[in-house]
Amino acid sequence: MNGRSAAALGACAGGMAVAAMLALRLAAGVTSLIEVIGSGLALLLPGPVFGTMIDALQERGRPLLLLGTAALLIAIGAGLGLVVARWARSELPLGPAAMQSRAGDWWWRWLLPALSLWVLTQPLLLVAEGGYDTSAAVSTLADWLLLCGLVEILVGLPRLSGNTPGTRGSSTFSTMSRRRFMAVSGGALGAVSLGYLGSRVLAAQAPPALLGRGAAVAGGVIPAGVTPISDFYIVSKDLLGPPRLDPSTWRLELSGNQSSSLSYPQLLAMPHLEQVQTLECISNPVGGTLISTGVWRGVQLSRLLEAVGLPRNAKEVVFHCADGYSESLAVEEAMLPSTLLATHLNGRALPAQHGFPVRILVTGHYGMKDPKWLTGISTTAGSFSGYWEQQGWNAAAVPHIFSRFDFPAGSASLRAGRAYLLSGVAFAGNLGVQRVEVSADGGAHWVPARIQPQLSRFAWSVWSLPWRPGPGLYTLTVRAEDRQGRVQSARSVGSYPNGARGRQEIVVSVA
Questions:
Q1: Segments in 283-351 forming alpha helices (H)
Q2: pLDDT in the model for residue 107
Q3: Which comes out higher in pLDDT, residue 491 or 102?
């Protein structure tokens, strides 16, 4: 077998393995080697490089990472095909002794590469999962064994034929047919897998900027200015979707002066309060849509902490999540009445992608401080570095002043003499927004916009400004001012490591 054929067969084996990994992840929620390698490699990049990639790729970043990692695994399969073919390129004579020799070779060609590659990926596993995860380690070992086993079967299958005297030709034909069938199947499955991941790249788009309409929810209608669940932004370290948690078996483990465990029904039975609050991702670009406002319901975290008792030396409260994510809050913030264990969004139980069965909701911070899929709460006497903080993102995660145009959007073309209502949102965390201004000449002159009353002090402000333009080309700019008199920065800065800063500008043609 020449090198080209061995590499092609190895690539087909890689395609079959990638398809199996994807199927198991999507059907059963099993951690896949694709996610571990992709997340680990991305997070090992220097912080400024990683941040620049996030700013540039935005919603296409995650599916592109998956697509690239799947292609890498197929390429690794091709390389393994070359290794296996070279390892066993010498022809062995027929007979029982030869079969024993082959038996002594094939499992080395299977296990040694699989175990070696698994060991090499353990640092990536530690980074991707935020610590050592035994179940993820076992699943990645199984994935490597699958990939290497398929390579050995496809590349080594012809050599396992012809051991029965008088049937060598027919056996060889049968073996070649089986190899061809498996190779074609593997190639097809690999192509389908890459096509599926490629379609996710093409389908990825920013959440819509929708204001001025309500949305039907359980028990009524949410007001304009609240984001419908279908449009609420989603950001997660989990590349292939949220972990699957069964509410009948889920438990929240609490640790303080004493330990306690809560079931989902017990948590739901506790007193809840409702809170309208805006969440913004720390990677939200200037004028971006990774910011949404919801009507949340949840249990005050202080109730649970008081029930288990806070150690006198406790400095931070630490949150542990089902996907390996971790985060912390200062005890003083954790005890605020506005810090919730949220169980509902817009009148409905939390959707899986937003943290079902429960997530933390804290005010005055970017969304990285609101961990989803909560499974444990503990305390520490020292400082704790959460998942993204370990990658260099700012631990304080305090939002910068933000404002955005919702209309017009992008490079719009409008009609001269017609009345329009410029509109959008502004947000300044817990400080609130006291002024929004719009310029139609790139910042030379500013006109104050009207601000609607806030739905809560933790929510964004909705602004609008009537505009009847004449013919021409306009550069529209918006800026906000918080209640301490600080004006939104005119200097553009990328999101890493402190969150993006700057003012949104859009070019509008009026004819």
A1: 301-308, 331-334
A2: 81
A3: 491
Q: In sequence order, what DSSP letters do the residues of 159-176 get, joined into one string?
A: GG---STT-HHHHHHHHH
Say whether both 47 and 142 belong to one domain: yes
pTM: 0.86
In 281-373 the beta strands, taken as DSSP E runs, fall at: 291-300, 316-321, 326-330, 340-345, 348-349, 359-361
**CA dist list (Å): 77 to 5, 149, 238, 420:** 12, 10, 24, 58
Residues 335 and 457 in one domain: no
Q: How confident is the model at residue 100 (pLDDT cuts 50, 70, 90)?
A: very low
**Gap between the terminal Cα atoms of the chain:** 69
Same domain, residue pair 292 and 406: no
Rounded to an integer, what distance in angstroms lies between the CA atom of residue 209 and that of residue 288?
9
The residue among 8, 52, 48, 457 whose CA lies nearest residue 285 is 52
For residues 368 and 287, membership in a common domain is answered with yes
Task: Identify whether residues 410 and 447 lie together within a single domain.
Answer: yes
DSSP 198-265: HHHHHH--PPP---S--EEETTEEEPTTSPPGGGS----S-TT-PPP--TTT-EEEEESSSEEEEEHH
Residue with tokens 């509410």: 247
What domain range is 160 assigned to?
Answer: 3-203
Give the whole-angstrom CA distance, residue 111 versus residue 141: 10
DSSP 361-394: E-SSS-GGGS-SSEEEEEEESS----TTGGGT--
Per-residue pLDDT, averaged over 3-19, amounts to 93
CA atoms within 13 A on the CB side of 213: 8
Calpha distance 406→422 (Å, rounded): 8
| Six-digit token string for 510 | 């009026």
The predicted-structure confidence for 400-417, as pLDDT tens digits, reads as follows 999 999 989 876 789 999
The reported pLDDT for the residue numbered 158 is 54
61 within a domain of the structure (yes/no): yes
Residues 352 and 309 in one domain: yes
Q: Considering only 72-76, 236-240, 436-440, which range has the smallest mean pLDDT?
A: 236-240
Give the closest residue to 474 by CA, choosing from 503, 423, 424, 511.
511
**Residue 365 belongs to a domain with what CATH number?**
3.90.420.10
